[in-house]
Amino acid sequence: MNALGKLAKDKRGAVAEIARKTGASHAQVSRIAQGKSRPSLDLAKRIEAATEGEVTAASLLGVAGDEGGVRAKPLNDGRWFAPVNATAPVELPPELLESFGFTDGDALIFRRTAEGFEVVSQRRHIRRIQDELRKLVPEGVSLADELIAERRAEAARE
Predict the structure, then answer these.
(1) What is the spatial distance between Cα 69 and Cα 98, in angstroms, rounded to a whole number?
(2) pLDDT tier at 131, thresholds 50, 70, 90
(3) How many CA atoms lie within 13 Å of 82's alpha carbon, on the beta-carbon side?
(4) Which has the closest alpha carbon to 90: 66, 60, 108, 58?
(5) 115, part of any domain
(6) Which of 15, 51, 143, 156 has the least C-beta neighbours within 10 A?
(7) pLDDT tens across 67-88, in order?
(8) Over 50: is that where the pLDDT of 52 sits?
(9) Is residue 133 domain-resident?
(10) pLDDT confidence of residue 66
(11) Looking only at Cα atoms, what is the longest distance across the chain?
C-alpha cells in the first residue's frame, strides 16, 4: 500500500479532501491511493502539497518507496527491474505481483535454484507438496479411511 493509500485508510474523507485540494477527480485520487494508477508529475506534486509532504511525489511516481525503498519497474519484455539496496526495502508494485499470478493475502516463498531463485505463493507451494505426497498413496486407497479404521481398532482394544 502506498503512502496515499495509508493516509486514506487512516483518515476518513482524505481522498475527497485531496481531490478537492488538487482539482483531481475523487475516482482518480482513489485509483492512485489503491495503487491502480500513477499520477502525472504535476498531480503528484499537487498531492504532496495537499498532504503537506505526508505523501511525497517521489513515492507516488515510484521513484522511492514510502520507507525510502526502491520500487520495481517493468522492462518492455515482461521482465522487471529492481535494484537492491541493503538499507532500503524493494517495493513490489501490485501490477508486478498480479502479472505473476499472486493475489491479495498470498505469502511468498523464495527458493534458491541452480539458475537463480524461484518465487511461489505459499498456496502453490503447499499444492506442489500435496501433489508429491499424493503420488506415494496407491490408487484407490483412502488414507483417511485407513486412519479411521486404525483408531476404531485401537478404541475396541481398550
Answers:
(1) 20
(2) very high
(3) 18
(4) 66
(5) yes
(6) 156
(7) 455 678 777 777 888 877 776 7
(8) yes
(9) yes
(10) 44
(11) 79
Q: Considering the domain boundaries, does residue 22 fall inside one?
A: yes
Q: Name the burial class of residue 29, with classes exposed (0-12), middle (13-18) and buried (19+) by CB atoms within 10 angstroms of its CB.
A: buried
C-alpha cell at 96: 508486478
37 within a domain of the structure (yes/no) = yes
DSSP 47-70: HHHHTTTSS-HHHHHTSS-TTS-E
Q: Which domain holds residue 46?
A: 3-61
Cell 517495493 appears where?
A: 91
C-beta of residue 3 within 8 angstroms of C-beta of residue 36: no
Give the cell for residue 89: 526495502
Q: pTM for the whole thing? A: 0.42
- Find cell 482394544 and name the residue: 157
> What are the φ/ψ torsions at residue 132 (nearest 5 degrees)?
-65, -45
Quote the CA–CA distance of 147 and 125 in Å, as a whole number.
Answer: 26
